[in-house]
Amino acid sequence: MCTLEKRGNLFILTITGHDDEHRLNPTLIDSIRDALTRVRAESNGPSALITTAQGKFFSNGYDLAWAQSDESRLLLMDSKLRCLISDLINLPMPTIAAVTGHASAAGFILAMAHDYILMRKDRGFLYMSELDIGLVIPPWFVTLLKSKARSPVAWREVVLKAAKLTAEMGVDMGIVGSAHVGVEETVKAAVDLGEELVKRKWEGHVYRENRKMVFAEVLVALRSDESPGGGDDETHADSVANTLKSKL
Question: Strand pairing of 48-53 and 102-104?
Fold first, then answer.
C-alpha cells in the first residue's frame, strides 16, 4: 500500500504496509498507480513527485512467492509494472526517488524509472539480484537500465556481476544523484531538490514530452510485447516460471 501527502506543489508518495520488503504484486502496484492518478488530478501548476518507502526496503522486487503457483500471475505482475513505469515516464512533472533502504530487482527498476535517485548512504543498496537467484532479466529492464546508466562498466557491474551498489558507488556510476546520512536527511534532500525544481516553473506537458523523447526506446520496449520473452523459443516468463517451480 502507499500514502500520498501534498506539501504545496510537492507530492510525497510513501510505500507502506505490513510487508516491510514492499514486494511488487498487483495490489501494491495498483495502489501506487492510483496515487499517481491523484497526483495528476490534484497538481496545479509546476509540481514534483517524491517517492520513498517505510522500513529497511524501498522495494525487494516482484512478489515471487505470490507468483509461484501460476505463471499467469508473473505475466500479470510484469504487465502491471510496465504500466506503472509508463505512468512515471508520462507524469507531467519531475520525479525523485528517495531510496532509504534496499532496492532490489524490480524494486531497483522502480527507482530507476524516476528522473533523480537520492539515496541513504548508511543503509541500503541497489541490486539486480536475478543473476544470483538464477533468473533471466526481462529485456525491458535492461533497456531502462541502459537509458539511465550510460557506462558499459555500470552495465557489467549491475547486470553481469550482480553488484550490490552502495549510495557512494551509485554516485560514482552516475546512477545516484547524491548520498545522505539517514532517512530524514535523504527525504529532506529530496524535498529540497523538489522545491528547487518547482521554482523553475516548467510547464508540465512540456517536461513530460521532453522526457518521453529522451526515453523513447524505453517506451517502445514497454509496449513491444505483452510477454517478457520477446519471441524467443523459451520466453522470459517460461524461464522464470520453470525456475520458480524448482526453487520456491
Answer: unpaired
> Tens digit of pLDDT for each residue in 52-94?
999 999 999 999 888 887 878 888 999 999 999 999 999 999 9
What global pTM score does this model have? Answer: 0.91
The whole domain housing 92 covers 2-198
Residues 6 or more apart from 104 whose CB is under 8 A from it? 57, 59, 60, 61, 126, 127, 128, 129
Find cell 541497489 and name the residue. Answer: 126
**Structural domain total, the chain:** 1
201-216: b or e for each residue (b if 16 or more CB lie within 10 Å)? ebebeebbeebeeebe
Edge-first strand order for the sheet with 126-127 is 57-59, 102-104, 126-127
Compute the Cα dihedral for 143, 110, 65, 248 and give only its sign. Answer: positive
Residue 33, all three cell numbers: 498507480
Are 2 and 33 within 8 A, CB to CB? no
* CATH number of the domain residue 148 falls in: 3.90.226.10
